[in-house]
Specification:
Elements: E1 2-6, E2 18-22, E3 32-41, H1 44-51, E4 62-63, E5 68-71, E6 77-80, E7 83-84, E8 100-101, E9 113-117, E10 121-123, H2 130-133, H3 136-150, E11 158-161, H4 167-178, E12 182-187, H5 190-198, E13 203-206, E14 215-220, H6 227-233, E15 234-242, H7 256-261, E16 265-268, H8 274-287, E17 293-298, H9 302-311, E18 317-321
Parallel strand pairs: 11-12, 11-14, 12-13, 14-15, 15-16, 17-18
Antiparallel strand pairs: 1-2, 1-4, 3-5, 3-9, 3-18, 5-6, 6-10, 7-8
Helix pairs in contact: 3-4, 3-8
The structure holds NADP nicotinamide-adenine-dinucleotide phosphate.
């Protein structure tokens, strides 16, 4: 079958190991099922995989892609939940210590077909295109959990979102605005700051710029480049939710003194449960909001999407279609 996969890993030149080609049809273990992929969205996770972060050399070749929307074996439109927990795991799938994301242990979604546990297949929400639905399971679900489950944010509170252009960041801006929060966002790029205002930010700032107010919470996916600004932007007792480190995980200074003296809360967050995916769909339905798509490309042109993401030339989600 057609597939976009990692043939080798390269920390400095991730696209070197990317192949747009053919892989054998997948085998279907007991209790798993086949989804025919119609749309799949690109995540920074796919670049990390090619760099060898989260993907081991012994798992190669590995079809990339966490997210998919398509049709199940009976022809019903479906969306795939990307968190694979053990079959006997009960409750929050993200807390199974042996969970994985599609394309880490099991083959991913950038292909004609993907094989997943039956419980990871959910009906495609009515009123969503396959391209929109393909944005939900990773970036949008992560944003939902960061804001509401882990961040515990309430309408009327003020949130700062770092690195406005990213897939997760644009989801954070849209969801935060839809939920009645005051939304501040940063970006390195003036054009992206203007776009952030269009999609719901109340105020935008250059990366690192001092804010006129202290915020209740910061949503952090950039890491090293924005960490200090995130800590310094919080009010006493405020909350920093971190789910990613695009610019790197190693901090020059974690500002620990600020963290204890101002009694800040630093909270990790990762992906989300299938229940949260359903709540996310409900929120989008109720507010009439939809995932922001930067561009849609035929899956054969996946390399073009990877290159754009590696350059940081993205505002919203890149979606591949079959
Ligand atoms: N834990 C989880 O479950 C989970 C789930 C999804 C994503 N993530 C992580 O979250 C991060 C974002 O993912 P994504 O798919 O949204 O990636 P993306 O679409 O590539 O977004 C990256 C954004 O980060 C900002 N950025 C990058 N380098 C920066 C720098 N040096 N200084 C300031 N800003 C910088 C950019 O914002 P501007 O250009 O606007 O400044 C860029 O738009 C990734 O690290 C990913 O691995 C984690």
């Amino acid at each position: 079958m057609f597939a976009v996969y990692a043939e080798s890993l390269n920390p400095d030149d991730p696209l070197k190991g990317l192949v747009v080609g053919e892989r054998p049809d997948p085998e279907v273990p007991q209790g798993w099922t086949t989804v025919t992929v119609k749309a799949a969205s690109l995540n920074h996770h796919d670049l990390w995989s090619l760099r060898g972060q989260g993907l081991k050399a012994e798992a190669l070749p590995m079809i990339l892609g966490c997210d998919a929307a398509g049709v199940d074996e009976d022809g019903n439109p479906v969306v795939v939940h990307a968190v694979i927990s053990r079959p006997d795991w009960q409750g929050d799938e993200t807390t199974d210590p042996r969970r994985s994301l599609l394309s880490e242990v099991h083959q991913g979604t950038f292909a004609d077909k993907v094989v997943v546990p039956r419980r990871n297949v959910l009906p495609l929400p009515a009123g969503f295109s396959v391209a929109e639905a393909a944005c939900l399971p990773t970036a949008w679900l992560t944003a939902y959990r960061m804001l509401f489950t882990r961040g515990g944010l309430k309408p009327g509170e003020t949130v700062l979102i770092q690195g406005a252009g990213g897939g997760v960041a644009t989801a954070l801006i849209t969801l935060a605005r839809a939920a009645g929060l005051r939304v501040l966002a940063t970006s390195r790029d003036e054009a992206k700051r203007a776009r952030a205002l269009e999609i719901g930010a109340h105020e935008v700032f250059a990366s690192g710029e001092r804010l006129p107010v202290k915020v209740d919470a910061v949503m952090e996916t950039v890491g090293r480049a924005t960490w200090k600004h995130s800590v310094r932007s919080l009010r006493p007792g405020g909350t920093l939710v971190v789910s990613g480190t695009t610019s790197g995980p190693n901090l020059d200074d974690a500002l620990l003194t600020n963290i204890f003296f101002l009694q800040l809360r630093v909270i990790g967050s990762t992906m989300g449960t299938s229940g949260e995916l359903a709540s996310l769909v409900s929120l989008l339905d109720a507010t009439g909001t939809r995932p922001l798509i930067d561009r849609v490309l035929p899956m054969e042109q996946a390399r073009e999407g990877f290159e754009a993401m590696a350059r940081g030339d993205v505002f919203g989600k890149i979606v591949f279609t079959r």
